[in-house]
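Q: Structure tokens for this one, please.
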Amino acid sequence: MKRTVKDPEVRRKEILTAAEELFKNHGYVNTTVEAIIQRVGVAKGTFYYYFKSKENILDALVHEIVDQRYEEYKKIADDSKIRAIDKMRLMLRGDNQFSEKENNLMENLHRPENRELHERINIEIVLKIAPVFAEVIEQGKKESVFNVEYPLETLQFLLAGSQFLLESGLFKWNKEEQAKRMQSMQTIIERSLGAAPGSFSFL
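A: Here is the predicted structure, written as tokens:
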């Protein structure tokens, strides 16, 4: 039987897609390299040609998700026709829609077995997305709507804090508790950025 030879990028994508599906259904911790190999239907050597380990796949998926967000946010940040506060609304509230694939994966991050995946994504968001927000804050300073001495560092604290308290799934807040913390987050953001009260009421 003749062996099917596929384009390397196609094969790599197949492995990533299979791993993502298994992580979603069984969790990152419970998914083995062997399970990924069986799902794709490739030899073990083929798998290790593209990825050194399961952790290597995790990194690839994380960067894929964060890079997509980065592109969406950077497009907004670079638009000179949009005011800074409107850029913040678009980036935080989400007039920009992410792919169904990303949304499905993100929904599964709160599962205990996906904790490592969630944490990796949060770290990459702080490192890669915060600088884009900082660009918008710098614009807002010129427009006199923000007044903050350390835009990047402030954004990193805000992102890390909100992700841990509101998005990690660790605290299992009920709707009322979540709403109160969102209101508190609004106040914290406004005061941290030197913005007028109510500026972030869209949250």
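A few notes: The mean pLDDT is 88. Residues 53-193 form a domain with the Tetracycline Repressor; domain 2 fold (CATH 1.10.357.10).
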